[in-house]
Specification:
145 residues; globular; 9 strands; Jelly Rolls; alpha+beta
């Protein structure tokens, strides 16, 4: 895994984040702030990006490549560019609920909990937008049960 600051490419990452459902309703100003709070992270094929049962402290937005998401007792799911995972780690201290593995070379934007919380304290309207999307996802998950 290699990391680099996404600050210098905030405009580019703003466009990427605008296509991600959890951030799609944010204004361009807010998207730029989220992009500035992120880091570009690259993973080699086969790398475990997150592991079930371990502590989580970041959300990942998949910029390029594919990952496999495995949860105990459920079929594996493949995610591609524009998908995101690890969002629950931004809001609580519970262990990761899934293992996510790079299926090939993968590039992600990682947004850590500490920087994200600082951003939400300075821009509460971002939190309101995110809560709306999380509520929609929860309703969808409940309707599938």
């Amino acid at each position: 895994m290699t990391t680099s600051s996404a600050d210098h490419d905030a405009r580019t990452w703003t466009n990427v984040l605008a296509e991600v459902p959890i951030f799609a309703d944010l204004s361009s100003r807010h998207l730029k702030k989220v992009a500035s709070a992120s880091q570009l992270v690259r993973f080699h094929p086969g790398a475990q990006i997150v592991r079930s049962g371990t502590a989580g402290d970041a959300l990942y937005v998949l910029v390029d490549g594919e990952v496999s998401v495995r949860r105990r007792g459920l079929p594996s799911v493949t995610l591609g560019s524009g998908s995101f995972f690890g969002e629950m780690a931004l809001f609580d201290d519970s262990p990761r609920s899934a293992t996510v593995t790079a299926e090939g070379p993968v590039v992600c934007l990682a947004i850590g909990r500490a920087r994200f919380h600082k951003l939400l304290r300075s821009e509460p309207s971002i939190a309101v937008n995110l809560l709306g999307e999380l509520a929609r996802r929860l309703r969808l998950a409940q309707s599938l049960d």
